[in-house]
Amino acid sequence: QSVLRQPPSVSGAPGQGVTISCTGSSSNIGAGSAVHWYQHFPGTAPKVLIYGNSHRPSGVPDRFSASKSGTSASLAISGLQAEDEADYYCQSYDRSLGCWLFGGGTKLTVL
Amino acid sequence: EVLLLESGGGLVQPGRSLRLSCAGSGFAFNRYWIHWVRLVPGKGLLWVSRINSDGTIATYADSVKGRFTISRDNARDTVYLDMNSLRAEDTAVYYCARPVNPSGYDDDFFEFWGQGTLVTVSS
Questions:
Q1: Secondary structure letter of residue A56 according to DSSP
Q2: Do A52 and B107 touch (CB under 8 A)?
Q3: B96 partner at 20 to 30 Å CA-CA among A83, A91, B54, B73?
Q4: B64 to chain A: which residues are within 8 Å by CB?
Q5: Contacts of A43 (CB under 8 A, 6+ apart)
Q6: 3-state secondary structure of B109
Q7: What is the pLDDT tens value at each position of chain B, 123 positions in all?
Q8: B70 and B50 in contact (C-beta within 8 Å)?
């Protein structure tokens, strides 16, 4: 079981929006550690989607946004497209464990 | 272009050993910390280990501590992961990843990843 908890799956119709949550604790997200989000298509390298809680790298559409509050973070995807169907992972650093954590991953299905 | 290329994966019996390699190019390899992250079927991404730029500091996840050893050869722009006493639960795709900053901040994200190498531990 991952220390960062994500829903196993979310789904939405094309054009709709979805939100993926990432729940941590007082030793990681709640301690001020940054949260990053990755998009992963099976068989490929993960790609950073959001870094530093809410920043988008160049080339990432503004349909993707993220926020952080307390011990949790969330990734919002608006205007769903078929190409968004992938696995999404949050990541942060745990200051008590001294290691980098990933959430268990959320599989997004575009209906 | 920054590239990371893993190699060395394969099928191995429980209890045996395997060495993975991660070759970097397109950046000043000797300035960056390098991490290993694995994708475990049904469990997602799990951080495994990291090594600092000159190879003097290594950190491990509890699940591999004492069994895995990370090292690097900057003359060859390569990081290694020596995996001993392998278990079925070590079965995964192993990625090497480079953080965005050279100086190894804890809050760094993994900017570049390799394509991964599959390790299957089974009798």
A1: P
A2: yes
A3: A83
A4: none
A5: none
A6: coil
A7: 999 999 999 999 999 999 999 999 999 999 999 999 999 988 899 999 999 999 999 999 999 999 999 999 999 999 999 999 999 999 999 999 999 998 778 889 999 999 999 999 999
A8: yes
